[in-house]
Write a structure and sequence with these properties.
Number of helices: 20
CATH class: Alpha Beta
CATH superfamily: Glycosidases
Radius of gyration: 23 Å
Largest sheet: 8 strands, parallel
CATH topology: TIM Barrel
Distance between the termini: 9 Å
């Protein structure tokens, strides 16, 4: 059997949301290793068709994959340690230092401050040995650097400069480098040539391993869903190189930043701090940077969720000196002109529109004009008595992706446990079940809905509580670190139950 790796309203399917860093394993963080391949096989055994994940780029501030140092570069912390051993790029003694860094840690949590530096030291050794063995002279490596030169050259220099300047953001570098003075850039490339080559090597290893995972997934009829955040981090190679595409001055300063108004997640809104686009400048270049970004994403994924889709219609712009996002304003985005350009230049691109938050008719019209599936979150359905609430499953259209919750929500068990009694009553009434069966009944209700695609966060498979949520919006501590255990990955009984549910509701591949 060969799966059609596209979204279709005529084919019912389902899958699991799990970021690769959340995979179990002995090296302190999830990797593109044995556990990733095992997870693919578990999805296949459970009759699933999709594995959804968060952005796989190098995470930035507070470990957030939505604040990456590059919209193109892969998160090299995901590189398989065992694969490096097999390729003799590291030794067992060198790997032991990484294992030691994971000792006495909560297996449920990725310890960013200890594990990632230890992993980076190991990767540095691997990259140097790759070079010492002259593997950087191979046709495969040369082909990779040529194919990805449009982002790799700038990113490798940016990452090397950041390392050289002890982790400082680009706006804190010497003035000539901030301004990208040609002579200063040329000098940096000469002085940091060794570091730059190592960065290129690690990206080559990452994307080589990722391609193996993608090919393996396809052989097991599993397709991957990725994530493109609409905005990029201020401290990123993208902004350093392309600041003319953002509302920034020559030093990278701006009077406004991105965010969202008060909503379900925060009474004061969210002031993200990302620079906002100068859409006029982007249009003048034919949205070339965006076209390259989307093409790159489709090399690694079969379907892509556009995070904060509504920002293409209008985005919330907040003055930089405001303490919260309350006093921001809506500013028009590129809307149809942007998506018309994508279709003209790239043809049909398989997108999921993250159409949550403060949505108006214009956003819905933009989504529907390009027949993009929106998102339905069941946890949002019981805040009032509205029987035909758009997040209640009996109202779902076929052209949507339905979730119990996303990475920004509580786990479903945690969400229900923390509801007030009135909302719990609404849930019980709607599902016609007692408290102890709510999670299972939520699954059944989603799976029997009209939604073409249903996605369940991995935590919900085991009815895990609030302490297992991935992210709490508008907070910066304790996020992005949750991990599955090896016992859960090995729990074939639960995957068999999921297979039965999937077959019962005609969603099996």
């Amino acid at each position: 059997m060969t799966t059609d790796h596209t979204f279709s309203t005529t084919s019912r399917s389902s899958g699991i949301l799990l970021h690769p860093t959340s995979l179990p394993g002995k090296y302190g963080t999830g990797e593109i290793g044995a556990e990733a391949f095992d997870f693919v096989k578990k999805l296949s055994s459970a009759k699933q068709r999709w594995w959804q994940m968060l952005p796989i780029n190098t995470p930035g501030y507070a470990g957030s994959p939505y604040s990456a140092e590059s919209a193109f570069a892969g998160n090299t912390a995901l590189i398989s340690t065992d694969a490096l051993l097999e390729q003799e790029l590291v030794t067992t003694t060198e790997v032991q230092a990484l294992v030691n860094a994971t000792q006495n840690h909560d297996p449920r949590r990725l310890n960013f401050s200890e594990v990632l530096p230890a992993k980076q030291q190991l990767l540095d050794v691997a990259a140097q040995r790759f070079i010492d063995q002259d593997k950087h002279t191979t046709d495969a490596f040369k082909a990779f650097t040529q194919k990805h030169a449009h982002w790799l050259d700038d990113y490798a220099l940016y990452a090397s400069l950041k390392q050289h300047h002890e982790g400082k953001g680009w706006r804190q570098w010497p003035t000539a480098l901030v301004a990208r003075d040609e002579a200063a850039i040329a000098d940096a490339k000469r002085e940091l040539a060794e570091l730059i080559l190592k960065e290129e090597v690690l990206q080559f290893i990452f994307f080589s391993q990722w391609q193996e995972l993608l090919d393996f997934a396809h052989k097991h009829d599993i397709a991957l869903i990725g994530d493109i955040p609409i905005f990029v981090a201020m401290d990123s190679a993208d902004v350093w190189v392309n600041r003319h595409l953002f509302k920034l001055d020559a030093q990278g300063n701006s009077e406004v930043v991105a965010g969202v108004p008060p909503d379900y997640f925060s009474e004061t809104g969210q002031k993200w701090g990302n620079p906002v686009y100068d859409w006029k400048a982007n249009k003048e270049e034919g949205y070339a940077w965006w076209l390259r970004r989307i093409q790159h994403a489709m090399l690694t994924m079969d379907l892509v969720r556009i995070d904060h889709f509504r920002g293409f219609q209008a985005y919330w712009e907040t003055p930089t000196d405001e303490p919260t996002a309350i006093h921001g304003k809506w500013v028009d985005g590129p809307a149809h002109d942007f998506f018309d350009t994508i279709q003209r230049e790239l043809g049909h691109v398989p997108f999921i529109a993250e159409d949550l938050g403060d949505i108006d008719d214009a956003v819905i019209e933009l989504r529907d004009a390009y027949e993009l599936p929106g998102m339905k979150i069941m946890q949002f359905a019981f805040g009032d008595e509205q029987e035909d609430h758009p997040f209640r499953p009996h109202t779902y259209p076929a052209c949507c992706v339905a979730y119990t919750g996303t990475h920004d929500n509580n786990t479903t068990q945690g969400w229900f446990d923390e509801l007030g009694e009135l909302e719990k009553h609404r849930v019980r009434t709607y599902l016609s079940c007692p408290d102890e069966l709510v999670v299972e009944r939520l699954f059944e209700t989603l799976f029997e809905s009209n939604a073409a695609l249903v996605m369940l966060p991995a935590q919900d498979l085991w009815k895990l509580g609030s302490e297992h949520r991935m992210n709490t919006p508008a907070t910066t501590e304790g996020n992005w670190s949750w991990r599955m255990t090896s016992d859960e990955l090995a729990d074939q009984t639960r995957f068999n139950q999921l297979a039965n549910l999937t077959q019962t509701h005609n969603r099996s591949k």
